[in-house]
Design brief:
Four Helix Bundle (Hemerythrin (Met), subunit A), 61% helix, 117 residues, mainly alpha
Length: 117
């Protein structure tokens, strides 16, 4: 899928992977009736969900966050992201989405249609 992707496309995919995880975490926070923090930091968002004890991998959240930072704000001479690294970040984002979808469903939210993620 990412073989031969241009540097901007690979960076964009890494940014969007982080954004998908971020929005899913914020949806779970909003489900509790709490305004989500205004942050892109996934670990901070996960900590806001600590009482739910969701099975979120801290290292995965850090990797996704790093992908966002370097993807959204690359240094002028920063090399292109390795497609394998981007694919890994997409997989990590999917893991977060799966955990959050399970959490939403356990709380009575109809998650049909999210399977396509």
């Amino acid at each position: 899928m990412l073989k031969g992707a241009t540097a901007p496309a690979a960076r964009g995919a890494a940014v969007l992977a982080q954004q998908a995880a971020e929005k899913a975490l914020k949806a779970a926070i909003a489900l509790r009736g709490t305004d989500p923090p205004h942050t892109h930091h996934l670990s901070m968002l996960a900590r806001a969900l600590a009482p739910e004890r969701l099975a979120l991998d801290a290292a995965a959240l850090r990797a996704l966050h790093d992908g966002f930072r370097t993807g959204r704000y690359p240094e002028p001479e920063e090399p292109a992201l390795d497609p394998a690294v981007v694919a890994e970040r997409l997989d990590l984002a999917q893991q977060v989405l799966d955990v959050i979808a399970d959490h939403l469903q356990a709380n009575g939210v109809d998650v049909r249609g999210l399977e396509a993620l």
